[in-house]
Design brief:
The chain has 1153 residues and is of the alpha+beta class. It is built from 40 helices and 36 strands.
Length: 1153
């Protein structure tokens, strides 16, 4: 057993020695091949010696060669002495190189093998041609069998060629044999020995050698035409038999040893364990050989998204994008890193791979060389770091956001000591990061915040809650400022507070505005003090469960009106609803979501929504809670800002920047295409003279300014006017440039940018003009308010003053009537002012509508004449109206608006005419009527003729002889003309008078309408005095008293109530009521609803609606809900009397029945 163990331990050495010795004894049985005059004595048995070197390495090849040699073995040395010894060493060196090549990791073994062979052949030629004879002459006589003599050089070269050819053939044969699986297994290369396969391997090996032997014989007989003697054939067969015996013996020694099988089983188990670890590794592992992936684990399949067939056989670069992030080609970089790993340099680096679906991902990779027997492989361990890279990028972005935040951000430890402040904090407070570190935020304390408030703050954040509030702090320079802060705790994974973070906005300017608002009038302060946010709770379907009373301030609804209402009814956009719900469903909350809602009065309100889902303990959603903040004013301001920003942005987009270089020394100018476009230069010319550019500047001052800049500054920024080259087109440019100087400081060159800012300057001027216009509007409104105050107070003074004088005892009847007349006149004047304000308000609010009716134009002019005739006579002005010859000329238009236009224009003409006449009339055009109002008054300056049609403006707002009026008449007239699809204009000369023209479209009627005075007809037929039972529905005592006095002569009984409910009850109790005077606007139940209820059980009673609104459409609405007629407040006795008498026929029927 000891002998067997020794044999097994040194089996390769023993086999190498045996093969070498075998070559000694069988060297005479070589194949002799003749080619022309060369005979190749090839010791083909010695192919085994080369195979040993190739399969087991150069050490074993050297042992086999030393044991017996291959073509010139050492035992032939005595024949030629030292000379043959040198040849033997050359052969041995060849074995070493061949073995080294096959035992190392090289890309092209065969190419390198031929390289070694070329070196070997050169060595043989050099040795035999120049050294052989010299060494032969040095051989000792007792070691040689022949005398010293020189061998011809041609013979020595022949030996070199024969030896070289022989070794080449043997090497090629050895390489071919090693590629046969059976031979590889015989020498232990990549084989798994199993006992039952040994016989197959043995017979396969014998077959290969028989095949090779037959090839050699064929070469001798067929190719080289050499007749083989029986003795040579028997020698070949004997040699083959001995070779087979040697092979069989080697097989028995190698593969039938029990210990060898145990070792192989352990190796197999070890490989199995390695395979388990390999496949279950957390990192992807690739096994690479000769740049090709030969194996991979399960994690690699997961990472790349495929199976082994998709990965094995590919190169690293095929699983990577074309280029790496650093720009290097993936193929080049992979080869460089693999080669570095092969020479023993382990690497760890980041790499970008590509999955089989084409997506890329980042990995951290390491390469390690592993030697396995004669193979050298590279193990690549890959870890996917895509998530880590994203986290790092997210952290970088968050850090950048904090650094660039417009809010001050402070982070403290759990003790309140500052650990970080962002640049905005330094900008606001003046404290740098180094100055703030380890300090308490109370370094900003101003004394305004009490210790109790600080305790409350600390208690809130220490309990894990967020504190929000405002501070009045002090900066480093002692300046006070306000900031709005939100302070929140930061907890670790255990829920322990480790830090606090404060996000603070500088609200000093807002506070200043608040302080100014506090100094405003009480009524405005009261309004703003009551503006609060709205808290709400809705169920998951959107039904309002709870809402704070402050909702009335924003939306106009009482709290009780909204409970149970679907909140989505108030959204103007369905997309807003869907978007808000999606955010709530996805995140569970929504912050600062701005949406446009509808208020009770149909106005649009912008609100900011902060809401969240509230959950039950089991995680099911319960309801939605939130807060609405009115941001309407801010949104409107933002829209204005956006408009301005848009204009500025478009101006910047249009502005092009050009570059230029001015060589002062040479006097030449070079400019980019844009620079040439700005100056109007020829784009096809590259170089211009300095004079050409100077001539573009508008005046000499610009040139002198540039000269001063060149002489004194190294850089400059200046705005100037230029003419485009060869034209009178003026542009404004901004130049930013740097002046290059020589050693003496003299300017030699200017490099810079030129920007055409003409459009920007134009926009800036427009903004200045807009500002001036807004300021002018404010001045006009102030003057209007002053005038309005006068216009209201003056008649009020007359009403109140003379009302008080009427209380005097012993007042004569004449004075009494005089005072009453003054009161009536003042009241009419006040009513006219109020009516104008109402009219302009209706126009501005858009509630004015067109009501078409058929009117007699001449009668309408006559009405205006009769209305204003007395006013004209009082001023001593002649009033003239011109009508058409066709007295029954009728058109279809809005009667009231035409009347108002004419009244305002004629009244205005009378007001500004102190002597002479006022004439008005009309002319018939193709599709319209052209009216005119001509006066001989003070006239209107040309620069004021457009302005007088604006609201709040009179012809001369600062007129020392200011006239009565609110300055709204012409604005109302212009608005009504435009509503009737007409135009209005004037012609005027100062101190001579004015003529106002306006047109209205119409549709003429062919048939005249006969007017019948129904009131007079009924009066002739039936007397109503003392015959009517009248119900007065009025919640104002004074109005109630006035109406009762007016209708007293018609009444046999008067019933008075103050609400719609009382009116309904009175009608049910008194079914014989003849007339109801119904007030519309009442607190408990308005007149419209009351009328509808009464009509359900009494359709005959006459109902006249009375309202103080005087709005367009009031009459139509009153008729629609069941009223018989309508009268506007203040109620005129004559109008109401005529209105009652209008229905006399119906009263007669009702009274008689």
């Amino acid at each position: 057993m000891e002998i067997l163990g020794f044999i097994l331990k040194y089996k390769r050495i023993l086999v190498a020695i045996s093969i070498g010795i075998l070559s000694i004894f069988l060297s005479k049985q070589d194949v002799l091949i003749y080619v022309y005059d060369f005979d190749f004595n090839i010791p083909w048995i010695s192919v085994l010696t080369i195979i040993v070197s190739m399969a087991w390495g150069w050490r074993y090849g050297l042992i086999a060669g030393l044991a017996g040699g291959i073509y010139f073995p050492f035992i032939l040395w005595p024949q030629y002495g030292w000379a043959n010894l040198g040849t033997s060493f050359i052969f041995l060196g060849y074995f070493v190189l061949i073995g080294y090549i096959y035992n190392r990791y090289f890309k092209n073994k065969n190419q390198r093998m031929f390289g070694v062979f070329a070196c070997f052949l050169i060595a043989l030629f050099v040795y035999n041609g120049f050294l052989f004879n010299k060494l032969l002459s040095l051989s000792a006589s007792f070691l040689t069998k022949q005398t010293v003599s020189n061998i011809p050089r041609e013979m020595l070269f022949k030996f070199a060629r024969v030896d070289g050819a022989s070794i080449l053939i043997l090497t090629l044969c050895a390489d071919v044999l090693l590629r046969i699986n059976g031979v590889r297994k015989l020498f232990g290369i990549q084989t798994t020995p199993i006992l039952k396969n040994n016989l197959k391997i043995l017979f396969g090996t014998l077959f290969v050698f028989i095949f090779v032997w037959l090839i050699f014989i064929s070469l001798q007989t067929v190719i080289f035409r050499e007749d083989l003697s029986d003795q040579k054939i028997h020698g070949q067969i004997a040699l083959f038999i001995l070779l087979c015996v040697a092979i069989i013996t080697a097989r028995i020694i190698f593969y039938y040893s029990e210990n060898h099988h145990k070792i192989l089983n352990k190796l197999k188990q070890s490989q199995s364990n390695y395979k388990i670890l390999f496949d279950n590794a957390n990192d992807a592992i690739l096994i690479i050989k000769e740049e090709i992936i030969i194996d991979c684990n399960s994690k690699a399949l997961e990472v790349f998204g495929g199976n082994k067939n998709d990965i094995i056989g590919k190169s690293i670069s095929s699983l990577s994008p074309l280029k790496q992030p650093d720009g290097e080609l993936s193929n080049n970089k992979a080869n460089r890193l693999l080669n570095a790993a092969l020479v023993g340099e382990p690497h760890r680096f980041e790499w970008q791979h590509k999955r089989l679906d084409g997506t890329t991902f980042e990995v951290e990779a390491s390469l390690n060389r592993i030697d396995i027997k004669t193979d050298v492989i590279v193990q690549a361990i890959i870890r996917d770091i895509t998530a880590r890279k994203k986290s790092f990028e997210l952290a970088r972005k968050l850090s950048s956001a904090v650094e660039q935040s417009s809010a001050s951000i402070v982070i403290t430890n759990s003790f309140g000591e500052i650990e970080y402040v962002n640049p905005r904090f330094t900008e606001v407070t003046g404290y740098t990061l180094d100055e703030a570190i380890n300090k308490n935020p109370r370094i900003l304390k101003s004394g305004h915040t009490t210790s109790g408030e600080y305790d409350n703050l600390w208690g809130t954040i220490s309990s894990g809650k967020v504190w929000k509030g405002e501070f009045k702090n002090v900066k480093k320079n002692g300046e006070f400022y306000w900031e709005s802060a939100s302070i929140a705790p930061i907890v670790n994974e255990l829920g322990v507070i480790t830090h606090f973070v404060a996000v603070k906005d500088d609200i000093t300017e807002r506070k200043k505005v608040d302080e100014l608002l506090e100094e405003s009038e009480i009524k405005y302060r009261t309004i703003f003090d009551n503006l609060n946010d709205v808290f709400f709770i809705t169920n998951l379907q959107g039904t309002i469960i709870e809402v704070s009373p402050s909702v009335k301030n924003i939306f106009g609804y009482d709290r009780d009106q909204l409970i149970g209402v679907d909140v989505f009814n108030f959204y103007l956009s369905a997309d807003s609803r869907v978007s808000l719900l999606n955010i709530l469903i996805e995140k569970g909350f929504v912050n600062d979501y701005e949406v446009e809602l509808n208020a009770k009065d149909n106005s649009r309100v912008y609100v900011s929504v902060n809401a969240k889902l509230i959950f039950y303990e089991n995680g099911e959603p319960k309801h939605i809670e939130g807060i609405l903040r009115d941001v309407t004013e801010r949104k409107l301001n933002e829209e204005k800002i956006k408009i301005n920003e848009y204009r500025l942005r478009k101006a910047q987009e249009i502005a092009k920047i050009g570059t230029f270089e001015l060589d002062i020394k040479k006097g030449i100018y070079w400019g980019s295409e844009e620079s040439k476009r700005i100056f109007g230069l020829n784009s096809n010319v590259e170089i211009f003279s300095q004079k050409q550019i100077k001539d573009c500047f508008v005046n000499s001052n610009s040139k002198a300014l540039l000269r001063d800049i060149f002489e004194q500054k190294n850089s400059y920024e200046v705005e100037q006017e230029i003419y485009k080259f060869g034209t009178n087109e003026k542009r404004i440019i901004k130049t930013v440039a740097e002046v290059k100087r020589d050693q003496k400081g003299k300017p030699i060159k200017i490099l810079g940018l030129v920007l055409d800012i003409t459009e920007r300057k134009k926009i800036e001027q427009e903004l200045i003009d807009a500002k001036e216009k807004a300021e002018q509007s404010d001045r006009l409104k102030s003057a209007f308010l002053a005038n309005m105050s006068h216009e209201i107070r003056t008649p009020m003074n007359g009403i109140l003053g003379f009302s008080n004088l009427l209380k005097q005892p012993n007042l004569s009847g004449e004075n009494q009537q005089k005072f009453i007349a003054i009161i009536e006149k003042s009241g009419a004047r006040l009513l006219n002012v109020i009516q104008e304000i109402v009219d302009i308000s209706k126009i501005e609010s858009g509630v004015t509508s067109i009501i078409l009716s058929e009117i007699n134009v001449n009668e309408k002019l006559e009405d205006v004449y009769n209305l204003l005739k007395i006013d004209a006579e009082e001023k001593g002005v002649q009033l003239i109206y011109n009508s058409q010859t066709n007295k029954e000329f009728k058109i279809k238009t809005d009667s009231e608006k035409l009347y108002m236009i004419l009244t305002n224009l004629v009244k205005n003409a009378i007001k500004y005419t102190d002597e002479g006449s006022v004439e008005f009339g009309y002319q018939q055009k193709e599709s319209c009527l052209e009216f005119y109002v001509k006066d001989t008054g003070i006239g209107i300056a040309l620069d004021r003729q457009e302005a007088i049609f604006e609201r709040f403006i009179q012809a001369d707002i600062a007129d020392t002889e200011a006239r009565q009026g609110a300055g709204l008449g012409l604005a109302i007239a212009k608005a009504y003309v435009e509503m009737l699809e007409g135009d209005i204009w004037l012609e005027s000369t100062v101190a001579k008078g004015s003529t106002f023209y306006f047109t209205i479209k119409h549709k003429a009627e062919s048939e005249p309408i006969k007017t019948i005075n129904n009131v007079e007809m009924v009066q002739d037929n039936y007397n109503l005095e003392g015959k009517l039972k009248i119900l007065i529905v009025e919640d104002d005592d004074i109005s109630q008293l006035l109406i009762s006095v007016i209708v007293k002569k018609f009444s046999k009984e008067i019933i008075m109530v103050k609400s719609g409910l009382e009116a309904i009850e009175a009608c049910k109790k008194n079914t014989d009521i003849d007339l109801i005077l119904m007030d519309i606007q009442m607190a408990e139940m308005n007149g419209y609803i009351a009328t509808q209820q009464i009509r359900k059980f009494n359709t005959d009673v006459i109902i006249i609606a009375q309202t103080a609104f005087a709005m367009a459409g009031d009459r139509e609405k009153a008729l629609e809900i069941g009223c018989d007629d309508h009268i506007s407040k203040p109620i005129n006795k004559n109008e109401l009397t005529k209105l009652i008498e209008k229905y006399a026929e119906k009263y007669k029927f009702m009274v008689n029945s």
